[in-house]
Amino acid sequence: MKFEIPYKAAIFDLDGTLIDSWPSLVATLHAHLPGQTLDLRRLKQELSAGITPMFALAMAQAAISAEQQAHEHAQLLARYLNEFLLDAPLYPGVPELLTQVQAAGARIGICTNRDRASALRLLRHHGLDAAVDALICLGDTAHPKPHPQPLHACLAQLSTSPGETLFVGDSCIDAQCAHAAGVPFAAHLCGYHRHLNELSPAALRFESFTQLARLLGC
């Protein structure tokens, strides 16, 4: 069946949008900080700002001194990347949605504040790399999200304009980036954010990728 959607391209954030990295991060914390009582609800909220701030909060909750935190952070990150990175599942319905977007003739981009090496490992692990037409990662532009520069770079790779592209994300960083770049924003309500009002303004809001497919007319 030939689908039609009202956009020439869809750009997706990675963590909290296509991939649920939370289980792999929790496993890392429990392995590296055994016996510590961590406030997982607060840590998941902090993940909306990124992995580094979330790890910093976890170390503070574990009463690790400021002097030790740089060393502990390096160990946490290494353990996460080496042992637990690929324990992050896709959100249900992601492969089907990407197939439908491609069937509609739209191009697919990824715009993430994750480093390129781990982003590629995750995409390849889940078999999504072949579906991606453009990939912008941390360090590819002078400024990360929420600055509009990464999203503009992704638009350039896709050869699309802001008005004909949808950016799908889950955090205030994504919402601010989309707004600054002039790109319509689709808010994933089951990702990582402190409050739903952080996801405004949003052209679309969805709780599942099946729902997003319906909203797009797939």
TrEMBL record:
<dbReference type="InterPro" id="IPR050155">
    <property type="entry name" value="HAD-like_hydrolase_sf"/>
</dbReference>
<dbReference type="GO" id="GO:0008967">
    <property type="term" value="F:phosphoglycolate phosphatase activity"/>
</dbReference>
<keyword id="KW-0378">Hydrolase</keyword>
<comment type="pathway">
    <text>Organic acid metabolism; glycolate biosynthesis; glycolate from 2-phosphoglycolate: step 1/1.</text>
</comment>
<dbReference type="InterPro" id="IPR041492">
    <property type="entry name" value="HAD_2"/>
</dbReference>
<dbReference type="InterPro" id="IPR036412">
    <property type="entry name" value="HAD-like_sf"/>
</dbReference>
<dbReference type="GO" id="GO:0006281">
    <property type="term" value="P:DNA repair"/>
</dbReference>
<dbReference type="GO" id="GO:0005829">
    <property type="term" value="C:cytosol"/>
</dbReference>
<protein>
    <recommendedName>
        <fullName>phosphoglycolate phosphatase</fullName>
        <ecNumber>3.1.3.18</ecNumber>
    </recommendedName>
</protein>
<dbReference type="InterPro" id="IPR023198">
    <property type="entry name" value="PGP-like_dom2"/>
</dbReference>
<dbReference type="Pfam" id="PF13419">
    <property type="entry name" value="HAD_2"/>
</dbReference>
<dbReference type="InterPro" id="IPR023214">
    <property type="entry name" value="HAD_sf"/>
</dbReference>
<dbReference type="InterPro" id="IPR006439">
    <property type="entry name" value="HAD-SF_hydro_IA"/>
</dbReference>
<comment type="similarity">
    <text>Belongs to the HAD-like hydrolase superfamily. CbbY/CbbZ/Gph/YieH family.</text>
</comment>
